[in-house]
Structure formats: structure tokens, C-alpha cells
Amino acid sequence: MSDIHVEVHPDTATLVTKAAERFVATVVAAQKDRGSASVVLTGGGTGIGLLERVRENPGDIDWRAIDIFWGDERFLPAGDPERNDVQARAALLDHVDVDPDRVHTMPVADGIYENDPEAAAVAYAQVLGAHADGRQVPVFDVHLLGMGGEGHVNSLFPDTDAVREEHRFVVAVTDSPKPPPVRVTLTLPAVRHADEVWLVVSGDAKAEAVAAAIAGAPPVEIPASGARGLSATRWLLDTSAASRLPN
């Protein structure tokens, strides 16, 4: 497994700003190295805040040379303001010259996938495979993650079938303890295809789960513990989220 790196910032605003700066630098480096980059976005306050900071200071990112995926999505109709992709577009993607063919949103809960999140999950797995250079999942440069107070990442909640999944890379969740109940999510095996996994977490309500995950708690109990990158796993925290860590 990759090394775990912990970076602590004095407050949430600084955390989000520094994470955005790291994101820009990592994407630019990947584009210089290979000509393109591949990232997985997340929702939530810190995830969307990070995208807003990137919008303010995009550096030298070539927006025509980046593939954008999502780690999970609320299975709601197109345009619903609760969808992660809608929030990401408002925060960043509608304001940069991104190639629309390289923005890979998860299926919506109307049209051909209406009332069928399982088929939507299969369809997104096929999208991943189509951009994976012969593999089933791309090697993402960065997989961004937030974390819930109980340790969930993407829509992988403790003690659920989704967090136990070992073979499929995308699954439907029909009984999420956090509304809305129906979602589509990348699994831990998919997360582990990222070169770097970043967990951007703020707030003392999450401190206990942060400490447990970094200490190596079983992923079925603390899903964030199972989110590991191929080269690096980065915990980007504010002081409140880091307050239960040993000095």
C-alpha cells in the first residue's frame, strides 16, 4: 500500500485553498508528463469549495486535456441541484473551457435509467472501461474524497454491501443512510486505481473517524480507511479534523 501523508492547516478556508493549489499543480504536472490528466471529483462543502478556489486560480491547467469523473452521485433527475455534477458545474466547469466529451457524469434518474440505478451503475462502469487503455478502470491522477462523520467516502457507508464490494468498480446504493437513499458510487477497488487519493476533511465532528482511518481501522467500519492511492494517500485536514491524531 502507498504511504499516508498528513497535512494539517489552521482552518477550513486555508485547507480548501491549499488543497486547490495542490490540485492545480498536480493536474499541470500530469499534463506536462503525459499530455493529459484524469481526475475524480467529489461533492460536499470542502469538495465544492475546492473547485471554487480552482476557478479563482486555475494556474496553467489545459482544460481541453483533462478527463473528469465523479466518485459518486445522487440518483436524481438531470439538473437537480442536489446532484454533485450540477454543483461542480456551477462552481467550476461552466466557467472554464473544458471539453464536454471529457466530462463523464454519472447517469441521471430519468430517461433510459429511470428507476434503475443498477443499470446506471453498469453504464458508468462501461464509461470507466472505455477510458482505461485496456483496463477496467483508468489510473486516475487524483481521486478527491470528502468524508462523513462516521467515516463514509463516496457513497460507501459503514457496514453496507457497497463498502464490502471487492469485484465491481461501480455499484448502486438503494438504502443510503444519508438522503437521498438512492445513489451510484465507485467502490474501494475503483478508488484504489488512483495514483493519488486525497481526503479533504474539516471539522471536529470528523476528528474521531479521521484518527481511526489513519490508524488502520477495518474499512467495513470506517470506509475511509480503505481509500488508498497507488502512489500516495493524502489526508488534507484542518486543525479541528486533526485534533484526535497523536502528536
From TrEMBL:
<comment type="similarity">
    <text>Belongs to the glucosamine/galactosamine-6-phosphate isomerase family. 6-phosphogluconolactonase subfamily.</text>
</comment>
<dbReference type="GO" id="GO:0006098">
    <property type="term" value="P:pentose-phosphate shunt"/>
</dbReference>
<dbReference type="GO" id="GO:0017057">
    <property type="term" value="F:6-phosphogluconolactonase activity"/>
</dbReference>
<protein>
    <recommendedName>
        <fullName>6-phosphogluconolactonase</fullName>
        <ecNumber>3.1.1.31</ecNumber>
    </recommendedName>
</protein>
<keyword id="KW-0378">Hydrolase</keyword>
<dbReference type="GO" id="GO:0005975">
    <property type="term" value="P:carbohydrate metabolic process"/>
</dbReference>
<dbReference type="InterPro" id="IPR006148">
    <property type="entry name" value="Glc/Gal-6P_isomerase"/>
</dbReference>
<dbReference type="Pfam" id="PF01182">
    <property type="entry name" value="Glucosamine_iso"/>
</dbReference>
<feature type="domain" description="Glucosamine/galactosamine-6-phosphate isomerase">
    <location>
        <begin position="11"/>
        <end position="229"/>
    </location>
</feature>
<dbReference type="InterPro" id="IPR037171">
    <property type="entry name" value="NagB/RpiA_transferase-like"/>
</dbReference>
<comment type="function">
    <text>Hydrolysis of 6-phosphogluconolactone to 6-phosphogluconate.</text>
</comment>
<dbReference type="InterPro" id="IPR039104">
    <property type="entry name" value="6PGL"/>
</dbReference>
<comment type="pathway">
    <text>Carbohydrate degradation; pentose phosphate pathway; D-ribulose 5-phosphate from D-glucose 6-phosphate (oxidative stage): step 2/3.</text>
</comment>
<dbReference type="InterPro" id="IPR005900">
    <property type="entry name" value="6-phosphogluconolactonase_DevB"/>
</dbReference>
